[in-house]
Design a protein that fits this description.
The complex is a heterodimer of chains A (304) and B (262). By secondary structure, chain A is mainly alpha-helical. In chain A, 73% of the residues lie in helices and 6% in strands. In chain B, a hairpin with a 2-residue loop joins β9 (215-220) and β10 (223-228). Chain B contains 12 helices and 10 strands. The chains are: A mainly alpha (304), B alpha/beta (262).
Amino acid sequence: MEYFLQQVINGVTLGGIYGLIAIGYTMVYGIIGMINFAHGEVYMLGAFTALIAFLAATLLGGADSALGLAIALVATMGFTALWGWAIERVAYRRLRKAPRLAPLISAIGMSVVLQNFVQVTQGARVKPLPPVVHGGFTLMQAGTFKVDLSWLQIGILLLTLALMAGFTWVITKTPLGRAQRATQQDAKMAALLGIDVDRVISTTFVIGAALAGVAGLMVTLYYGVIDFYIGFLAGIKAFTAAVLGGIGSLPGAMLGGLLIGLIEALWSGYFSIEYKDIAAFSVLILVLLFRPSGLLGRPDVEKV
Amino acid sequence: MRFGGLTAIAGVSFQAHPNQITAIIGPNGAGKTTLFNCLTGFYRPSAGRITLNGLPLERLADHQIARQARIARTFQNIRLFPMMTVLENLMVARHAPLMKASLFSVAGLLGLKRYRDAEADAIEVARRWLDRFDLTAFADTEAGALPHGKQRHLEIARALCTDPVLLCLDEPAAGLNPRETAELTERLADLRRTDDIAMLLIEHDMSVVMGVSDHIVVLDHGRKIAEGSPFEIKRDPAVIRAYLGETDDEALPPDVAGDVAC
């Protein structure tokens, strides 16, 4: 029981991180019908930005203060948002009317470019970050096994919840969110009603990238090691989460992220840590085979 | 406007005035919808210019046609946002002013008064149109769940919500039963009376066309073959020929036949 609880805590933490990345996949897919395969790299850029911000803060002696964390967070979100905007502008916008395969290939190209860019400028070695957030408390103890909940995990969960709640509010209640949903349902009609569709799409990329940036920051803090290659695996896992929840569905992405995180943690805890990625990707294959519209997705409606 | 070797419409010019309904009629394939598509930025004309109050429409981006030229349109096959509520559909049409007031949602996030006022204003406009189209009871229904006739009304209400100077209605009576058609005709007549909007109407149902139009433009094979009041059009030999075929050609006086080519 205690062991199970510990795995659930770890899984939920991981799931929140996947969920934040998955939102970017699902939003972009919903609005322009493409899988942005460079999205995982944005998360990786977020991790590197956070690393640099924390190292700079350490030099200045304020890495573990709340202010240091907040500044790193804002810097990471701002920087990845800029990347998200630039990626859409450079690699996708001109291909808006091209056959579907073209932006997909462009996305894969963008992903390779970003990986190599970071590898060349930051080096290929694994980058460590000394723990920034310390401490936590023990929930339960059974014999020698302790169920720990660290402050970092609490922080990650709270921030994830806050971001998801805020983002849901933006989508359901603000003019921007309305414009995004309208563009998703009929982009041409939205334009005829005076919505600047290009700008709505840009904003979607910017928001998705900022959320992925936060996920990158969390991972940097949580695991303490990153390299230029982390975007690939995390990106594909978040994509799996988005598909599991129903691609195009916002609550689906959050739920999917949570489930993938739990599956991964429980599989690692009870079966084999080497096979945890296989467990996650088996889910992708099973979902695609048996429920392609995902858990919360709507079946594809034919557009007239 | 050409598609490959086919010239869909050429040299069509006419005027539309506020508080008037100008009907555009013609046989299938005459270029009526193509004309609308050129007006609303769906197609860029292959040659020539389209202006509205001096604005060159062919140079405006899609979203500027609604914002700057203030043209709104409806479609033959209704295009609502089916998974949004009726009220939200109308609010989308108020997007441009709302977005400006909300400073791209920032003011909305901060809950500033300026944004709340703008939103209250947008809801007010939307409610007014809902009221005029008897849709108030459906405000929170998903648009896709409305019956066909109500969807038609919603689409027109949404177009009006953008505050247009020119409203293009593409076969608004298509698929409506006689009672709904009569209701629609009445609404259009009502709009013409009370709102300073120029309306263009494509319609095959001649009872609607003859009932509400001030002016009729007849297209055939992409060219304007006649123009005039409903009374004149009903008697125009070129129109009769376009609709009924060439069989009664010899019945026409030669000077009328000469006027047809324009």
